[in-house]
Amino acid sequence: MLKLIKFILLLGVALLGAGFASINPEPVTLNYYFSDITVPLGLMVLVMIGLGAVLGVASSLLLMARVRRENQRLRRRARLASEEVNNLRTIPVKDR
In what residue span(s) does the Lipopolysaccharide assembly protein A domain sit (predicted)? Predict the structure, then answer.
């Protein structure tokens, strides 16, 4: 059910983007360091939105990787602490 909702939302966004691109056919010149190109305004906006989405996902993945590493490190420390507690519990207590 969730996959169907995601698919419908993705289809809606794609149709919205296609509609936006079709009603904005004015040419725009993109100047970059070595050359320049002329593309329709709608296409330029969609490409820039897509590039922003890709960069956002990439930065989120980097953050998630850092959090996962920290989580693994903390789990390892908790496991070692738990093993140490269990070892201390098995040591017999000496009477004075």
Answer: 24-85
CB distance 38 to 28 below 8 Å: yes
Kindly tell me if the per-residue pLDDT of 71 is higher than 90: yes
Q: Do the Cβ atoms of 24 and 47 come closer than 8 Å?
A: no
User: Helices 2-23 and 41-90: crossing angle, nearest 10°?
Assistant: 150
Tokens in use for 69? 């590493």
Nearest alpha carbon to residue 63 among 55, 73, 74 = 55
Q: Are 54 and 76 in contact (CB under 8 A)?
A: no
Residues 45, 63: contact at Cβ < 8 Å? no
Whether the model clears a pTM of 0.70, i.e. scores above it, the answer is no
Backbone dihedral angles phi then psi of residue 92, each to the nearest 5 degrees = -70, 145
Instruction: Identify any residues that bridge with 36 across adjacent strands, giving them in sequence order.
Output: 31
